[in-house]
Design goal:
The protein is of the alpha/beta class. It has one domain: Rossmann fold (3-Layer(aba) Sandwich). Helix content is about 30%, strand content about 30%. It is built from 6 helices and 9 strands, in the order E-E-H-H-E-E-E-E-H-E-H-E-H-E-H. Strand 5 and strand 6 form a beta hairpin. It binds guanosine-5'-diphosphate (GDP).
Length: about 200
């Protein structure tokens, strides 16, 4: 897929605020620092498209971009753990939960995971929660330029092993590097395929 245009459309603070359009939406989510902004810029060929999402007041919102005047890339706020007494509970803002559970336009969620690390509990919890919603999702392992391909593959295998007991299907797995632009055509290809072309 060639990227001909990419523009910021709007930020939504609740599901009712999301654009009233029939565009297919592809959402990107991951822990802070996973490389989400770099990936969004790399995919869209824009140096600072994702900067919009980091501007004051927008970090906790759903940020919608329109690509090729056809489909929407949705930049979602990240997730973390909240401490509730002695327990830890996965915490993503309610808005993210509502969007992922309710939005009809949502075609696929891309969950970004840092390929340098063995499975982190928070990512495993999020992926298994997401699997339970029934939303189609893929995993994108980021920053693969940082280590050997063998190490990346080992971490991917460990992650799949960690989520397998909780899921009925194995999610597609992609890899990327914003540095080398590896993975760009595969990710855009998957989106193009979902769009029917
Ligand atoms: P975000 O918080 O998820 O949006 O993460 P950023 O895109 O801001 O990236 C966090 C840090 O990781 C920055 O210093 C980026 O330059 C770096 N980074 C992101 N993607 C890559 C990558 O593919 N390779 C390398 N080597 N560094 C990356």
């Amino acid at each position: 897929m060639q990227i001909k245009s990419a523009e910021f459309v709007t930020s939504a603070k609740n599901v009712a605020d999301c654009p009233a359009w029939d565009r297919a939406e592809f959402a990107f989510i991951g822990r802070s620092n996973v490389g989400k902004s770099s990936l969004i810029n790399m995919l869209s060929n824009r140096h600072s498209l994702a900067k919009v999402s980091a501007t004051p007041g927008k970090t906790r919102l759903l940020n919608f971009f329109l690509i090729n005047e056809k489909w929407s890339l949705v930049d979602l706020p990240g997730y973390g753990f909240a401490r509730t007494g002695k327990n830890e509970k996965i915490n993503f803002n309610e808005l993210v939960g509502d969007y992922l559970e309710q939005r009809q336009n949502l075609r696929r969620v891309f969950v970004l995971i840092d390929s340098r690390h063995p499975p982190q509990r928070i990512d495993v919890s999020f992926a298994t929660w997401l699997g339970g919603t029934g939303a189609p999702f893929s995993l994108i392992f980021t920053k693969i330029d940082k280590q050997s391909a063998a190490k990346t593959q080992a971490n991917i295998a460990l992650f799949q092993e960690a989520i397998a007991p909780e899921l009925t299907t194995t999610p597609d797995t992609l890899i990327c590097s914003a540095q080398t632009r590896a993975g760009r055509s595969e990710i855009l290809g998957m989106i193009g395929h979902a769009l029917g072309g």
